[in-house]
Amino acid sequence: MRYELIKAALGEYGVTEQPGAAENSPRILQYFSDIGQGWVKADETAWCSAYVNFIAKKTGHEFSGKLDARSWLTMGVRVQYPETGDIVVLWRGDPKGWMGHVGFFIKKDESGIWMLGGNQSNQVCIMPYNEDRLLDYRMLRAV
Hints:
Elements: H1 2-10, H2 26-34, H3 48-58, E1 77-78, E2 87-91, E3 100-109, E4 112-120, E5 123-129, E6 134-139
Antiparallel strand pairs: 1-6, 2-3, 2-6, 3-4, 4-5
């Protein structure tokens, strides 16, 4: 199950926003459209959740369909020890606020939690994040 998620997620590696407000990445706009958020017409719109939704839906897993990263806190089941391909939900701005970031777990080491995600430096890539930002790890169920 997780293998299919991470394989599909890695298949999008390198998808990048187009610079400037006049240009938009057709692939990122497809993420929005395919999850029912086709009203979004700019790749400057926060798209980490759209990317995770796109991958989950494409691979036959439950998905939130929402653009807020914290919507993933209710998806799947909580896991204490994540495996590659599980969902990572982080807070952004304020731990009790509404903003966040979501992506796929790769590994955890002294550098932090490594995530494969969208809208990380304006692209799909793997980056480390401080573990103190962690809200939850989730394992998605197939539907």
